[in-house]
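We both want to read discrete structure tokens more fluently, so let's practise on a single case. Would you supply a protein for us yourself, any chain you care to pick? Would you write everything just below, so we can both look at the same thing?
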Amino acid sequence: VQLVESGGGSVQVGGSLRVSCAYSGFTYRGYCMGWFRQAPGKERERVASDASDGSTSYADSVKGRFTISKDNAKNTLYLQMNSLKPEDTAMYYCAAVRRWNGYCPSYNSGYWGQGTQVTVSS
């Protein structure tokens, strides 16, 4: 299993960025996938997730600004980020975990990419 993030970079406040996560070694069916971020000195937080059953969820801090999506033919997960703020600056990671009994267990027991840096400057 491998997850490789790309698309991070530097952007000004109010700008947009799309990060991608190319995955291999598993199929989207039966796997929950999500985006997480960690800023220096802060705990890792879940940004958005896709439960593989058509449902998505978002952290309150990004609702209405970020959108998680998948291209199953390309085995790629995306995170479209609009109206970026300085507090969105972080390392962004994608992760995947196998669904269990119809729900998504902790991503800590799943697979993680190496991360891609997003920096928002004013």
In short: The CA atoms of residues 6 and 20 lie 5 Å apart.
